[in-house]
Amino acid sequence: MEIGRGRLFHQVGVIVMSPEIEDVKRVLAICFRDGSRQTADDLERILSFDMGWMDTETAHDAIKALVFAGWIIDEEGVLSPNCDIKGINAPLGWQPRPSRLTDPAVNDTGSELQAERPADESEFVEKVVETDTQPVDPRSRMQKRLVKFISKQSGIDSDEITRRAERKVKALRYCTMWLALCLISREQNLEMNSIIDSFSSR
Predict the structure, then answer these.
(1) CA 77 → CA 46, 67, 82, distances in Å?
(2) Is the CB of residue 98 less than 8 Å from the CB of residue 20?
(3) What is the pTM of this model?
(4) Domain topology for 19-104
(5) Where are the chain's structural domains?
(6) HEC secondary structure over 41-91
(7) Which of 20, 61, 23 lies closest to 40 in space, CA to CA?
(8) Is 16 within 8 Å of 24 (Cβ atoms)?
(9) What is the pLDDT of residue 122?
(10) Beta bridge partners of 9
(11) Residue 119 pLDDT > 50
């Protein structure tokens, strides 16, 4: 039974990785396979030219989205994976869905560890009930905060920011409100690290 988008599945004591997380981890394992850190330009080259999975613009958006979602750590322009990619392999001829990289599931390591612990039936049922009453995508809780941040930094009214994001959602095939707001922040030349820091300063 599915715990949530991008979460793990628990079936008869077996932990199975969801397709969304599997795609992300396989991509990270390929990009960081030699164990060294990379720059954003290095990852763009790997995703677009070396692997041929997407064009450079989509690769750029994918890297920013993976940083926002917590899969990649950005330390002053030096990137490294924020999850365990040991033992992650991709079948011959495999390639990821671009939408799973430009709009990735949130890296919720705490929830994954919790799901790996043995649980009796009552604990499992309680988790399922809680999931049904909460938003499936944790990023939905960040949208209002991101709108306010972009508005404050750019000087554009919050309602106008929301309208622009809604237009992008309608115009782009694979785009959520969260990703649309990220694209707007990029258009306004806002410092992405400042936006990430705004999420952590609670």
Answers:
(1) 16, 11, 15
(2) no
(3) 0.50
(4) Arc Repressor Mutant, subunit A (1.10.10)
(5) 19-104, 137-200
(6) HHHHHHHHHHCCCCCHHHHHHHHHHHHHCCCEEEECCEEEECCCCCCCCCC
(7) 61
(8) no
(9) 45
(10) 2, 16
(11) no
